[in-house]
Every structure is written in structure tokens, then in C-alpha cells.
Amino acid sequence: MNHAAVFELEIINAFVTVADCSSFTIAARQLNLTQSTISQQIKRLEDRIGKTLFRRSTRSVALTEDGVMLLDYARSMLQLAQDAHLRLLTDSRPGHLSVAASDDLACHWLPPVLRRYHQCSKNVRLEIHVGITDELLKGAESGGYDVVLAKSLDENSTDKIIGGDQLIWAGDPWLISDSDKPVPLALFPDGCVYRRAALNTLNNAGRKWEVIVTSPSLNAIHTAVESGIAIAPLAQCFAAGLRVENNINLPALPLVWFILNVAPSAVRKPEVIRFLDLLDKS
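User: That's the sequence. What structure does it adopt?
Assistant: C-alpha cells below.
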């Protein structure tokens, strides 16, 4: 068989993703494919090279010795393909890229990606929008943005899941030492996933609450917590430096998922392809 036919890039990408995730289920979610499709791709690769690449059990997936050997080559193949694609996309024609993100993702994820993007795409006019998740997703539906980085409480979101974290309560436990008093909250405005999760959780538990700080700014929410005047629901990765008590006397919050939405009209835009490639590498 022709060597090129053995190592199809789509299948190689599936192999690397399963190896990195140690899970067919998580790999399928990241690639927006079904688990059965991923399994079929890996089986096709194993059949073509005549080697078993993964040891599978009901609880884990691990590389065999042959799988470990192939992994470095597979990463090199994907890297070469990405480099060639980006090189072909790089030209002197002016372009435009519109990116929207919620404030926490904009503060923590976007800066290094935008810095690298600007360095290699100085002919592209960048347009950055920061807002609340529900508003951003509505804007995406109407074609207002090329790319949206937002959040969801739905693990089965139709948008691509690019990460996730546990929502936690950040703040001084003394503020809620009396369970008969309302929980003082610092929240993002209506339309925020954190806000929706917190209020639903408290209402379902029968806890009283009052919103004393409302702001679209993550820094303002941090300030309210640091000042000792409010409790805030935040993704754990965005609560660095804040007081977080594991045994705080409040009901547990759900997981939050970070999602990527690309406008159908922008999927093939060179500016978008280049941005998504840098985001994947961040």
C-alpha cells in the first residue's frame, strides 16, 4: 500500500488526540465526532500498519510500545501540515477578523493568542468585542462575529468544547455564617452563565440571596470578593488569588464548559483558520 494512503492526516489527528486525552470519549468531543467514528479511524490505522496502538480497558486507554513510537512521527506530520497550510495562507492582502469573548476568557486566554496572531498577520484588522455570554452567542447567530469564545453549562453543547472547569464560591465564609441571612453576591449581569448557575443552585437549595455588586468586569468581581463584601461564583481557574474555602456552607456549583463558536460564513476565512490554529496551540 502507498505510504501516503496509510497515514491520512485526519486519522493521524484522531490518533494524536486519543493519545493526548487518554480517552476515546473526550477525543471524540474535542474533534466534534462520534466515539464510534474515532474508534473506526483508529482501527483503520491499526489494520493498515498491522500494529496495535492502544491498550484498551473499561477504564483507561494507554499507548502500546508501537503507539509510543508512532506518536512523535504523528505529531511531526500534523505540524508540517499546519506549517504548510499557514504558509500558503500568509499573503499581503488586507483582511479582517472579528473575535468576541466573555470578560474572563478575554483577560486570561486571548492576550497571548492575539499577540502571536498580530505578529504573523499584521495586514489583518482585528476587531475585539467583550461581553456577556448570552449576548455574544446571539450576535454570533446573526453573523455579527467571526469567532466567539463563551461559556456553557451544557456538556453536550453543539459548539466545540475547548475546555472546562469547576465553578466554585469565592469569598469570606464569615459572610454566610448565618444561614438565615441572604447570601451577598457579586455577579456578572443577566445573561452570564456563572450568574445563572449560582442563582439556580441557591434557589433549588432554598437559600436566600441578594445581589450587592453587578459588573461585566472580572476585575470588579474580584475587587468585591477581596474587599470582603460579597461571595462570587467563578470558574476555579479564574479565581486565582481569591479566598476559596472547600467547605464553604453553600450548595455545590456545576461544571462550566468553555466553548468555541465559529460563524458558518467565516469557517473558510484564512484569518479565522490562522486564529483557530494559534488558539489550538495556546
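The chain is about 45% helix and 20% strand.
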